[in-house]
Amino acid sequence: MTMQHEPPFRDPSAPLADRIDDLVRRLTLEEKVGLLHQYQAPVDRLGVAAFRTGTEVLHGLAWLGPATVFPQAIGLASTWDLDLVRRVGVAASDEVLAFHHKDPAGAGLNVWAPVVNPLRDPRWGRNEEGYSEDPWLTGVMAAAYARGLRGSAPEILKTAPTLKHFLAYNNETDRCMTSSNMPPRVLREYELPAFRPPIEQGAAVAVMPSYNLVNGRPAHLSPLINSVLRAWAPDDLLIVSDAYAPGNLTSLQAYHDTLPEAYAHAVKAGLDSFTQDDDRSAATLGHLREALETGLLAEEDVDAAVRHVLSIRLRLGEFDQGTPYDDITDNVVNCPEHQALAREAARRSFVLLKNDGLLPLADVTRIAVIGQLGDTLLEDWYSGTLPYAVTARAGLAERCETIFCEAVDRVTLTADAGPVIADPAGGPLQIKAAEAGMFDLFDWGGGAYALRSVTTGRFVSVDGGTLVNDQPGPNGWEVRETFRMEERPRGTLALRHISTGCYVGAGEDGVLRLIDDADQAVWLAMEVLRSGTDQASRLAADADVAVVVVGDHPLVNGRETEDRMTLALASAQDAVVAAVRKANPRTVMVITSGYPLTWTDDEVPAVLWSAHGGQEYGHALAEVLFGDADPEGRLTQTWYRSEQELPDLLDYDIIASDATYQYFRGTPLHPFGHGLSYTTFDYADLRVRTADGVLTAEVTVTNTGDRPGVEVVQFYTHQQRSRVKQPLRRLRGFDKARLAPGESRTVTLEIPVSELAFWDVTRDRFVVESAPHQLMVGRSATDLRLSTRFEVEGETIPPQSGLLRAAGHDEYDAITFVDETRVDGDAVWSDVEGAWILFRQVDLTGVTACVVTAGSAEGGMITIRRGDPLYGQALATFPVPRTDRYDYHAITSSLAAADGVHDLYVVFENDSVTLVQLDFGAGA
Fold first, then answer.
1. How far apart are CA 560 and CA 112, in angstroms?
2. What stretch of H or E contains 767?
């Protein structure tokens, strides 16, 4: 009798690399290709099951049915509590496992979270998905959440967290076709640091590239995937594409002519899994086979990708007899422990923006709860399905008597032929001679309105081009329930459907349908039957306190595919706040939004903000309002006074544009790190020292109030002298101090001095300069209570000489970063006459000539000037011949005598020149 031995890839005691080697050797090339799609084909002869990447779990399990819904990611980050964020990740992964054990195909263990794009611009439609505008804070928050998702077992992954979205992705506007200008310092000091901690710590084991291009090259083809991300990872790193992004390489981006060519490039660049055509893998696999057959791909390229895929599956325990997580059942889904955690997370996420002493509430028996968000909880696109909803009204009603109104206008709409009537069964809207139908009008801001039929309680939507009233509210990937109102003569208006851009017209039967022709839109007269503002004022006047709950709708006010143009609170909601405050000075404005907002009434005595807070929002709100808990949240973004203070949405150069709290020179509405407490704190005895390459700072924090409180102690540094422009302030660490009245605590910061480095473009590496620095500590980026100076011994950056890469310049005007080749390298391009790049401190001692590597679609001219781009001495001129896009010429020109060290401007004299490098060494 012979015993059957399991193959080595099924031996959990064998080294992981050996197990991968064994399984790869057993697979045919066809079987290996089948593993490169999101829906990986089974290999029945080896007992390898089908596998799918991509379960959404941004702030709880999403899209698969009711599961615990935690606050949005931006809300979790506002807790400034890494352990809490980790525990939320643990709970979310529990629920993923519970669904997976019931339906392995429906709930895969490769989870797509967290989002680590730094929140450079609050107008980004996906702002609520990220953590912070600070890359370091983003990175440590992401690492905490990913650590909870991956589980605590050292060798076995609970789930496989995937970071989204690499790289430089903060706009939805034309997101598949725009290229993010990424100077080397912004790349190395701002964008990449957000990805590093979760990868380097092994918390995240996969990465998803973004839809956009970076410096002219699609992010899915970035050489940084292999050269940087995989260099950080302690183990294999899986790279999965975003949905339908591979197809963009030949369509929207037109970067390659054929899909086999594009897909081959993607695999070589590091992509392991194609998320294309949903579960229909045939076309993608066919293109990969063709790439192999034509020599665009080699089998070893496929093997490299397959190793990354199988590494994750092996580490998930797929081929073991069991894992530490096999006993997780659906009893964990929305269990009492997860409900309590959702409540804790929501409570700790609230940020008290302003308080004139009204909060915490006391001696209150009757509260007026007012506003469009007062008695509803809203799900965002990546939210789970709420198992229950504790609204603001419900949470406060458990404390005292509440009276409520949504504070929306009730209106009729009438055309010349008669009023608009809603079908009682939820069917088509129609114009006919009858008693006018009534609608409640919701203003979500940015010109987006929704109408709810009073008759049916359902919202007006569009079905097959016909207006119906059958939806519970704005919802779905294509939101069909929002309209713009365009003025027409005699005080009438036309409705324009936002999703389609079509107008609302009326057929001969009176049924309202979408039409393309604006001139054929039906003119409607709107009559306000009941003013929401007036109703709110009357209600507020009859209460001890008014709580006005305002904010955004996550599917309307910017979301995936749609950015915002304004930060202003919807005008109707803004008017309600002002009217309520006038009717009752004891008014609390509660903002619920996934991004910073502005409003007009500066006299509101108390303002409280949170992101959309999940199922326990109302309970958490009540606990904070009534002072059961100190408001612990702090802002992780700058709240600007207006979008006018922001650079262009597509300007990714935070250094040149003075963007984010690091470089912003204005006075914000609320600064990064801001958040008030119900008590007061004093800072004393700031001490700092450097020894053995470590910076250590200590400060004593005391609760000087009469109630317990939580202080988020924030440490910032500023380099006071440098070769380059330095941040005005940069977060280096924080700690949460929970202090009883009168209690003091010493808070300590320890960071390696190497963390004070910046990217030196002259030598393509990080450098710590010898320079004085300032250490600052306080309550926010601008409320800094103490500071002290310290010296750092480092390097002095020498003058530049020899070969200068064009992308490594110091400053620029009117240039664009582009790809040097399709595979690697950056260059600069401009079609603006007089555009320039600046190289500071170039040593021209003994240099008599320069060789420029450049190309031009039309033929062009480059001039090197000393000291000034317009009037500086012209040292050399280079005629650039007409070339194809990636065909460059080395052009030599004599250099005017200019011994010594100079600032050199390279000026683009006319259209369409691409510059790769300048070589001053050849003529020395």
1. 15
2. strand 765-767
Confidence of residue 922 (pLDDT cuts 50, 70, 90): low
* Closest to 94 (Cα-Cα) out of 313, 321, 339, 262: 339
Residue the block writes with tokens 């990217």:
759
Side by side, which strands form the sheet with 694-703? Answer: 681-691, 694-703, 744-752
- DSSP class of residue 170? -
Fold of the domain spanning 676-792: Immunoglobulin-like (2.60.40)
Q: Are strands 606-610 and 351-355 parallel, antiparallel or unpaired?
A: antiparallel
End-to-end CA gap in the chain: 81
**Integer Cα distance of 629 and 710 in angstroms:** 9
- Angle (CA) 917-920-924 rounded to 5° is 160
Kindly report the pTM of this predicted structure: 0.97
Three-state secondary-structure class, residue 74: helix
As its CATH architecture, domain 417-522 has Trefoil (2.80)
The pLDDT tens digits of the residues spanning 606-631 come to 999 999 999 999 999 999 999 999 99
Residue 3 contacts by C-beta under 8 Å, 6 or more apart in sequence?
Answer: none
The yes/no answer on whether domain 803-919 falls in CATH 3.40.50.1110 is no
State the average pLDDT over residues 544-565.
96
What mean pLDDT comes out for the span 411-435?
94
pLDDT at 5 over 50: yes
Quick check: helix, strand or coil at residue 660?
helix
Q: Report DSSP letters for 452-501, one per residue.
A: EETTTS-EEEEETTEEEEEESSS-SSS--S-EEEEEEGGGEEEEEETTT-
**Residue length of the chain:** 924
Superfamily of domain 336-406+536-645: Glycoside hydrolase family 3 C-terminal domain (3.40.50.1700)
What residue ranges do the domains of the chain occupy? 29-58+109-325, 336-406+536-645, 417-522, 676-792, 803-919
Task: State yes or no: pLDDT of 911 exceeds 80.
Answer: no
Under 8 Å CB-to-CB from 759, ≥6 apart: which residues?
Answer: 184, 185, 187, 188, 189, 765, 766, 767
Q: Which of 641-673 are b and which e, b meaning 16 or more Cβ less than 10 Å from the residue's Cβ?
A: eebebbeebeebbbbbbbbbbbbbeeebbbbbb
- Count CB atoms within 10 A of the CB of residue 783: 12
Q: Which two tokens stand for residue 773?
A: 């620095």
Q: Which two tokens stand for residue 289?
A: 């086979």
Q: Is residue 832 packed enough to be buried (19+ CB in 10 Å), middle (13-18) or exposed (0-12)?
A: middle
Question: Tokens 């309209």 correspond to what residue?
Answer: 483
Fold classification of 29-58+109-325 is: TIM Barrel (3.20.20)
How far apart CA 820 and CA 804 sit, in angstroms, is: 14
For residues 433 and 415, give the distance between their C-alpha atoms in angstroms, rounded to a whole number: 10
CA 238 – CA 308 distance, rounded (Å) = 5
The whole-angstrom separation of Cα 855 and Cα 884 is 8
**Buried/exposed 298-317: b ≥16 CB within 10 Å, e otherwise:** eeebbbbbbbbbbbbbbbbb
Its sign, for the CA torsion 366, 371, 375, 378, is negative
Contacts of 444 by beta carbon, 8 Å cutoff, 6+ apart: 372, 450, 474, 482, 552, 553, 556, 557, 570
Q: What is the pLDDT of residues 36-85, one digit of tens each?
A: 999 999 999 999 999 999 999 999 999 999 999 999 999 999 999 999 99
- HEC profile of 784-822: EEEEEEEEECCECCCCECCEEEHHHCCEEECCEEEECCC
What percent of the chain is predicted at pLDDT more than 90?
A: 98
Write the burial class of residue 206 (CB in 10 Å: 0-12 exposed, 13-18 middle, 19+ buried). Answer: buried
Q: What is the largest CA-CA distance in the chain?
A: 97
The pLDDT-based confidence of 4 (bands split at 50, 70, 90) is low
- 897: tokens are 């005598």
**Best CA proximity match to 793, nearest among 765, 763, 767:** 767
